[in-house]
Amino acid sequence: MKMPEGPHWRLSIKQNEEIFKKNGFKITDKSYRLLIPKKMPGSDLINKLFYKNIILAKFGLVIFWILEKN
User: Fold this and answer.
1) For residue 42, what is the DSSP state?
2) Which stretch of DSSP H or E encloses residue 63?
3) How far apart are CA 62 and CA 52, in angstroms?
4) To pair with 46 at 20 to 30 A between CA atoms, which of 4, 12, 24, 36?
5) 42: left (phi over 0), alpha (psi -120 to 50) or beta
6) Backbone dihedral angles phi then psi of residue 68, each to the nearest 5 degrees
7) pLDDT digits (tens, 9 = 90+) for 6-51
């Protein structure tokens, strides 16, 4: 059995970006990865290519930022 978890306090994308800017960072790139989070035939190829499509990119489950210190 799984033990109960406490509440999760996740920040939104906008809140994260505001924190970065407030602490002196500039966002140089933002991208998404991992469209299919399960090992399936073809999932590696799809996960490797989907983010290059403007329409599909926002459906990624993981977001990352590349930051520069101001």
Assistant:
1) T
2) strand 62-69
3) 15
4) 12
5) left
6) -125, 140
7) 898 899 999 999 999 999 999 999 988 888 788 889 888 887 888 7
The residue written with tokens 């290519």 in the block is 49
Cut 0.85: pTM above it: no
Closest CA relative to residue 51, chosen from 67, 30, 66: 30
- Token pair recorded at residue 29: 């790139």
pLDDT, tens digit (0-9, with 9 covering 90-100), for 49-69: 887 888 888 888 889 999 999
**Displacement of CA 23 from its chain's centroid (Å):** 20
Cβ atoms of 35 and 60 within 8 Å: the answer is: yes
Rounded to whole angstroms, the Cα distance separating 3 from 41 reads 33
State the amino acid at position 19 in one-letter form: I
Amino acid present at 22:
K
Distance of alpha carbon 33 from alpha carbon 37, whole angstroms: 10
